[in-house]
Structure formats: C-alpha cells, structure tokens
Design goal:
Oligomer: single chain
CATH topology of the largest domain: Trna Endonuclease, Chain: A, domain 1
Distance between the termini: 59 Å
Radius of gyration: 17 Å
Strand order of the largest sheet: 3-4-2-1-5-6
Structural class: alpha+beta
Length: 186
C-alpha cells in the first residue's frame, strides 16, 4: 500500500522518458488515467501491475503541473520550466504539442504517443486494452500551408489502421483547433 508520505513521488527523468521504479505508484498512475506504459507488458490492464512504469514526456509534464509527481534530473529536482527546456531537446515544438495533449486529456480522452501510427498522438475514449484508439492526431503549426498530397497520405495511413485522421493546431492562449477529414465516395 502506498502511503501519503510517498506523494508526490520523485521520479527519474532519463532523456526522452520518465521512469517510475516504485511498482505501487506505477499501478496507481496507470490505473487512474492510463499514464505511461508498464515496462515489459505488451497489453497491460489496470490494477496491480508489479512493474516499473515508463512515462512519456507529455505524461510527465501534466503530472508535474498537477503536483502528482516531482521530477529528478541528475539527482536534482527540476521545475516546470526546466522540464520543458529539457523536453524541447527531444521534441520539436514540445510545448505546442503538449497544449494539444493537455486539451485532449482535459476533455477526458486518453492520449498516447502515436509514433507507431506515424502521428504525434493516438486518442482512446476509454483506454488501451479496453477499446481501440479511434483517432490519430498530427500537430501542425497554425497557419501552415498543407499540400493536398500530405492530407491524402496521412488520411490513407489512418484509414489503413482503421482510425480517423485529425490535424491539430495549437494557438497560444486559445484552445487548439482540430480538423477532421472524411473520405467520401461519389
């Protein structure tokens, strides 16, 4: 059992991921929001995982902002600004992407990295292992000109994995804008 003295736990930042070695805390974070991925489990289910947890940098920032974890880098606790500076070394436009991630999380969706689907994120309504992700999200800079071939390519990729394709833009101080495309047969 995890005691209140264990919170917020201090977790270790290692380049592109955050590792939580405490298996009780790992189980709590995964079971309450599907944060991270249990190490070595292909299809985890909520509950007593008995595994360390690997968080994405996006999961880490939302948990840090909400004082659910504290983050240690090189044996020193870091603040939000230091964390974002570190994350920018691994993700282009990290904070813009984070704004989209946070917006979708605030709407109640489970947001996971989408690299294996060729996108920034995938979105679940209930959670991995409970339902399949329904959307792939690609984040673009606001007002970036998109070529038709880019939209067609991304849409076909999404269709090939049975997901809907969303383009998201993040505009500071506003909610991200989401655009969906449907294929229509005439």
């Amino acid at each position: 059992m995890v005691s209140k003295t264990n919170f917020p736990p201090s977790v270790i930042l290692d380049k592109e991921s955050i590792i939580i070695w405490d298996e009780d805390i790992s189980s709590i974070l995964y079971s309450n929001g599907y944060f991270g991925k249990p190490l070595g489990l292909r299809k985890p289910t909520p509950g007593n995982l008995q595994r360390p947890l690997v968080l994405s940098l996006f999961d880490g920032l939302i948990l840090l902002e909400n004082s659910i974890i504290s983050i240690s880098l090189n044996d020193k606790n870091i603040n939000i600004d230091e964390f974002v500076e570190h994350a920018n070394n691994y993700y282009e436009d990290f904070y813009d992407k984070y704004q989209v991630y946070k917006y979708l999380r605030d709407l109640g969706y489970i947001v996971r990295p989408g690299m294996k689907f060729g996108s920034d994120f995938v979105i679940y309504e209930k959670g991995p292992g409970i339902d399949h992700s329904k959307w792939v999200v690609h984040i673009e800079k606001d007002k970036k000109e998109l070529k038709a071939i880019e939209i067609v390519r991304a849409g076909r990729l999404a269709a090939s994995v049975k997901k809907r394709y969303l383009i998201a833009t993040s505009i500071s101080k506003e909610s991200p804008k989401l655009y969906s495309f449907d294929r229509v047969k005439i």
